[in-house]
Specification:
Elements lengths: L5 E3 L2 E4 L2 H6 L14 H5 L2 E3 L5 E3 L7 E7 L4 H19 L4 E7 L4 H8 L5 E2 L5 H10 L7 E5 L5 E3 L3 H5 L15 E2 L11 E6 L6 H25 L5 E6 L5 H8 L11 E6 L5 E4 L8 H11 L6 E2 L2
Parallel strand pairs: 5-6, 6-7, 10-12, 11-12
Antiparallel strand pairs: 1-2, 3-4, 5-8, 8-9, 11-13, 13-14, 14-15
Length: 308
Amino acid sequence: SSGINAEYGGSIITKDGRSMVDGDPTGADFPWVPPAVKDVLGNAFVNKDGETVTLAELEGHHIAIYFSAHWCPPCRSFTPNLAKTYNKLKEKGVKFEIIFASSDKNEEGFKEYYGEMPWLAVPYADRERKQKLSQKFGVTGIPCLVILGPDLEVVNGNARNRVSSDPDAAEYPWGAKPLIDLDEDPSNINDYVSLLFIKGEGMDDGAAKAVMDKMTSSGEQYIEKAKASKDDQEFMFFYSNGASGKVTSSVLEAMENPASADKPMLVVLDIPEGGKYCVIECDMPTPDLVDSALADYKAGKLTMQQLC
């Protein structure tokens, strides 16, 4: 949990007050209003030739900030594939740029790793900027690929899995999906309150589709609401084809006395605020339970249990 919600003028100005206070023991930045993306991104980057490229030169571009490091095996595995996708987009003339924000332990490691990359970078010596970028986007693990639109609004807080499963960039710029296959892309489930539909067995395909269509519609509404308010999406929506999926099985194993793995179920997951869940009681999930489950969660009516 972030621990502190700082309020100003009756409205919340940050949901990450604790880390901001921890990083400012003298209170110099009080009341800890989060900086704008432009302020933490900076105005100058370096390219492969050591030349300076300004933010103004990237006007009209989608920008990806790539948090990565040479010492991280998953990063080294992802980087070559990201480079292939990047080069494909560049060959098509797409206005897209990547900026490497290094978590390497020293400049030598940075230079060796950056030598494998075709894009721009935050100068390694500017560690404060890198730290502020990590804090701004809530980066807690790497690799992490944050996608920004031309207006510098967040398009995707971590598109790593989306890019990995889309080598031809058919879904570029990998914006928010209203309904996500949990076993293909679980990247956001730790950061958002989520509704998970597990199809299980014994459920008619038409009935399952009706639930998923309702979840898709709700997901689209929450995406649009987040865009309008320029705030985080309130809920994310996931589905799973069955209990045996790699991620789904882990979620079920973390539940205390879960229902039969073969039974279709609807689950509210609140991992960011302490790792809690509630299996919605029903004989079979239905579309109307999508709205009522979220309404009950917001009203505090659900009995949330602790994930193991």
